[in-house]
Amino acid sequence: MQVAIFRKDSEGVKYAPKASAKVVGIILDTLSAVTRFPRPEVIGHFMPTGKGRSAFARQKSVTRPELHHLADCRRAGVLTPEAKATLAKAWIVPADELGRAPKGKERDWNSTAQSILIFLKDRVGTIAADHDVTVVAADGSDLSVIVID
Question: N or C: more exposed end of the chain, with fewer CB within 10 A?
């Protein structure tokens, strides 16, 4: 199992074209002060640099029908060429960034995906926006975080 992040086709989101090392440093310091599990690679995927927009902002977007088709194929246990093409647009969250699984229990993958979505929207997105850096839409409408078998 894996957790995949998609950038949904969301009109009107103006991602930060770049950010200075000083501003990114302040954002990272703020994040480390308010988060229990920092997820540096996830943050790195969403932070712009002095050279340009974030990797997330450069990710190919997916449409709602593409995501629905992928979900239908996952439930059916068969990936069509279209579903594989949609999946190829995802960024897979590294295993080290998922947090700890409960001791002696199997990981609740849907809960893990939801935790990452909340982390991105309410922590990374909000803190970055406080410093005039847009990494995700304020309501998270440009994000889709799902579990992939």
Answer: C
Cα of first residue to Cα of last residue in the chain, in angstroms, is: 5
pLDDT (average), residues 120-124: 93
Cα–Cα dist 42/93, whole Å: 7
8-14 mean pLDDT? 85
Closest alpha carbon to 52 in 16, 19, 18, 9: 18
Residue with tokens 């979900």: 71
* Domain residue ranges of the chain, discontinuous segments joined by +: 2-148
Average pLDDT over residues 56-60: 95
Show the CA angle centred on residue 69, arms to residues 3 and 117, nearest 5°.
30
